[in-house]
From TrEMBL, chain A:
It comes from the Bacteria. One of its GO terms (biological process) is tetrahydrofolate metabolic process. This is Sarcosine oxidase subunit beta. The keyword Cytoplasm applies. The gene is soxB_1. Keywords: Cytoplasm, Nucleotide-binding, Oxidoreductase. InterPro entries: FAD-dep_OxRdtase, FAD/NAD-bd_sf, SoxB. It comes from Planktotalea frisia. It is an enzyme of class 1 (oxidoreductase).
Automatic annotation (TrEMBL), chain B:
Pfam families: SoxD. Keywords: Oxidoreductase. This is Sarcosine oxidase subunit delta. GO terms for biological process: tetrahydrofolate metabolic process. The gene is soxD_2. InterPro entries: SoxD, SoxD_sf.
Length: 416, 90
């Protein structure tokens, strides 16, 4: 069933009795050509592109809970491609281009809103760094624009420009960045994958891999053994746990990142603002809530909740840059589990086990990467070669000296 | 979250700096080879459950502490001075 304006009107006139479930609930088959573990944004996107672009058949997505119940349902919905390094920027720009055509591709309203993102600048050194970043973005086909203080005052008059420690001196804007309705991304990909014949199997937890002589033959699950020629893992947050079942130790630590939303307000914030110096970023949802966040809690964790010191730190950041936020009450806060990699960049690669492929290590940049992650992972699964925008995301890049460390922090996952 | 410093007693989490997995206590020999060093520097067990990590009582006595902790419940199970743990290992 295709969604359209005509269909909405027709259903409105007939009591909305004609809507069908957006995807089936099939039982698992004994064998698939390709099994994707993880029914989140990345796993469902992988299934969609495998079926639609790479014309693969006989695919299943295995999800331990309900689809979209992990990090795609727990993030702050921002999309952007403002990266510096060659290994990253083409990939994230590819992702942003896919976001721009996503709703037509999926026939699903994901509320992609290119309201723009602005990184604030407070010093000469920071200006140099951001101008360099902007140039790197432009070289890779993205858009970037340097704004001076007067231009920012015009767009965001309510920011605290004359702060003693971090006066606002300019900003790097990416007008094509913005926000997307995160749950709709999972649902849209699921509906499209399902319509292309992908089996989406929920409430089916993976309990082990069947590996014989270095070849992955399938997975053990709470609903029995499922054979597969190829198994792709896309379970960021729980990668360590899952790949541990295949005997792998990963260059990843799991960390908790908190996010916050205020009560609904009238429109006050036109775009996304990031205050990197104070570890705070904020946007306003279409419902009116201010959606904001900051740093990781900083210690390894699999608990989807954090501690109060970071709540305090994030709120201080908000008060420092946007004092009017102090008048809004906090409505909700939550934590999500991040795969923090050793250099702050992700992995999309084959493993040393034949037929087992890995996608993870997204740090806190997983949401914006969803379309490109799915597309390039599908490319790898279908062709056994990396997509041209994802050649750098190798699991062995530390050994070969090709880490992609945007912040230059070294092997300290909690600092990326 | 409150951590018990073996020297100062139970203190707020804010007083401590988190370093990472206590893998640093098992540093390979300088000539252990590339594979051993790559594994030591980059790969982690990352358990969902009991883990051991290194913290420093930065805003207190500056002691390095090995904390045994549950990553799912955030429960602190045991703390010990890193120096004592290292001595017991050798």
């Amino acid at each position: 069933m295709r969604y359209s304006g005509f269909k909405v009107i027709k259903e409105a006139l007939s009591g909305h009795k004609g809507w069908k479930p957006a995807w089936r609930e099939p039982d698992p088959k004994p064998h698939y050509d390709i099994v994707i573990i993880g029914g989140g944004g990345h796993g469902l996107a992988t299934a969609h592109y495998l079926a639609k672009v790479y014309k693969q058949k006989n695919i299943a997505v295995i999800e331990k809970g309900w689809i979209g119940g992990g990090n795609v349902g727990r993030n702050t919905t921002i999309i952007r491609s403002n990266y510096l390094l060659d290994g990253n920027e083409p990939f994230y720009e590819f992702s942003l281009k896919l976001w721009e055509g996503l709703e037509q591709d999926l026939n699903y309203n994901a509320m992609v809103s290119q309201r723009g993102i602005m990184n604030l600048i407070h010093s000469d050194a920071q200006r140099d760094a951001f101008v360099r970043r902007g140039n790197a973005m432009i070289l890779n086909g993205a858009d970037a624009e340097y704004l001076n203080e007067a231009q920012i005052r015009k767009e965001y008059p309510f920011l605290k420009f004359d702060d003693q420690r971090f006066p606002i001196k300019g900003g790097l804007a990416q007008r094509r960045g913005g926000t997307v309705r995160h749950d709709a991304v999972a649902w849209g990909y699921a509906r499209s994958a399902d319509s292309h014949g992908v089996d989406i199997i929920q409430n089916c937890e993976v309990t082990g891999f069947k590996i014989e002589n270095g070849v992955c033959k399938g997975i053990e699950t709470s609903r029995g053994f499922i054979g597969a020629d190829k198994v792709g893992c896309a379970v960021a947050g729980n990668s360590g746990r899952l790949m541990g079942m295949a005997g792998m130790r990963l260059p990843i630590e799991s960390h908790v990142l908190q996010a916050f939303v205020s009560e609904g307000l009238k429109p006050v914030l036109p775009g996304v603002i990031t205050f990197g110096a104070g570890h705070f970023y904020v946007s306003q949802s279409d419902k009116g809530g201010l959606v904001f966040g900051g740093d990781l809690d900083g210690y390894n964790s699999y608990a989807q909740r954090g501690n109060l010191p970071v709540v305090e730190d994030v709120c201080e950041g908000g008060m420092a840059i946007m004092p009017m936020i102090g008048r809004a009450r906090l409505l909700r806060m939550w934590g999500g589990i991040m795969d923090m990699s050793m250099d702050g960049s992700p992995y999309i690669d084959k493993t040393h086990i034949e037929g087992l492929y890995f996608n993870g290590g997204w740090c806190y940049g997983g949401f914006k990467a969803t379309p490109a992650s799915g597309y390039t992972f599908a490319h790898l699964l279908a062709n056994d070669t990396p997509h041209e925008t994802a050649t750098a995301y190798r699991l062995d890049r530390y050994k070969t000296g090709h880490m992609i460390d945007e912040k230059g922090q070294g092997n300290q996952p909690n600092l990326h | 979250m409150r951590l018990k410093c073996p020297v100062c007693g139970e203190r707020d989490r804010r007083e401590f700096y988190y370093v990472g997995d206590a893998v640093a206590l098992a540093r390979p020999d300088p000539d252990a080879g590339e594979a051993a060093w790559d594994d030591y520097v980059h790969n982690r067990d990352n358990p969902a459950g009991v883990t051991r990590d290194l913290w420093q009582h930065e805003a207190g006595c500056a002691a390095w502490i090995v904390v045994t902790r549950n990553t799912v419940s955030h429960e602190i199970l045991e703390t010990a001075l890193a120096a004592d743990v290292k001595r017991a290992m050798s």
